[in-house]
Design a protein that fits this description.
This protein is of the alpha+beta class. It has a single domain, classed as Peptide methionine sulphoxide reductase MsrA (Peptide Methionine Sulfoxide Reductase, Chain A), CATH 3.30.1060.10. It contains 7 helices and 8 strands, in the order H-E-H-E-H-E-H-E-E-E-H-E-E-H-H. A 6-stranded mixed beta sheet has the order 7-6-1-3-2-8, with helices on one face. Strands 4-5 form a two-stranded antiparallel ribbon. Strand 6, helix 5 and strand 7 form a beta-alpha-beta unit. Helix 1 (about 5-20) packs across helix 7 (about 200-220), helix 2 (about 60-65) packs across helix 4 and helix 2 packs parallel to helix 7 (about 200-220). The chain is globular, with a radius of gyration of 16 Å.
């Protein structure tokens, strides 16, 4: 999000907290939706780590959610969908680079499969029915997108979206794009582990901490109380 949007969102979030009488009264986060497991998945047990790249609003919250998922080894905030030279925060924030704020998830498929990661992504990490916006943030850089690394990931993602739409898991159609991964570019260091470094930041309190509580409630089998971190300062 741009510095201006960040400031506006923070002030608004803080006002909601004060007016509501506490964090419990906040309504910033999108409500979770219980979705079925994907009928098509590709769990592997050969011990090799895999990566998944997804986008769905400000990358602070998406990163925070997946840092609490069992089987995940690392989550980087970054940019996908555009060219390398424009993968910079201020440029991406204009909405004209083709990039989306994204996360790269390195995971052990013996503990959590690609399809199971997508289930968490669609259920608690963001609202996949919102087009080019998420919570207080709007613009194509906040779009919902799965960036597939190979044909298998593409089949699983497309099949799952069709399954969710056919089963009417959401009140509105899923608008998540499924695009080929052309590159993932890590974001600036101050964006990495932002939620962990700034747990009392108003935007985090209102928009992102509820997502992590929802993960714990809806997916206790995958929830890790002690999150993984990037180690980037």
């Amino acid at each position: 999000m741009s510095v201006r949007k960040l400031l506006n969102a923070s002030v608004t979030a803080l006002a909601v907290v004060v007016a509501g009488g506490g964090i419990a009264a906040c309504r910033g986060a999108e409500p979770p939706v219980v979705v079925p497991a994907p009928t098509l998945d590709n769990p592997k047990a050969d011990g090799s780590l895999q990566t998944a790249v997804v986008a769905g609003g400000c990358f602070w919250g998406i990163q925070g959610v997946f840092e609490h998922v069992r089987g995940v080894h690392k989550v980087l905030a970054g940019y996908s969908g555009g060219a390398g030279p424009t993968a910079q925060y201020e440029e991406v924030s204009t909405g004209r680079t083709g990039h989306a704020e994204s996360v790269q998830i390195t995971f052990d498929p013996r503990q959590v499969s690609y399809g199971e990661l997508l289930r968490i992504y669609f259920s608690v990490a963001h609202d996949p029915t919102q087009l080019n916006r998420q919570g207080p943030d709007s613009g194509p850089q906040y779009r919902s997108a799965v960036f597939y690394a190979d044909a298998t990931q593409r089949r699983i993602a497309e099949s799952y979206i069709a399954q969710l739409n056919q089963g009417k898991s959401f009140a509105e159609p899923v608008v998540t794009r499924v695009d080929a991964l052309k590159g993932f570019y890590p974001a600036e260091g101050y964006h990495q582990d932002f939620y962990l470094k700034n747990p009392d930041y108003p935007y985090i309190v209102v928009n992102d901490l509820p997502k992590i509580r929802n993960l714990q409630t809806l997916f206790p089998q995958y929830y890790l109380d002690r999150p993984v971190t990037t180690g980037i300062r």
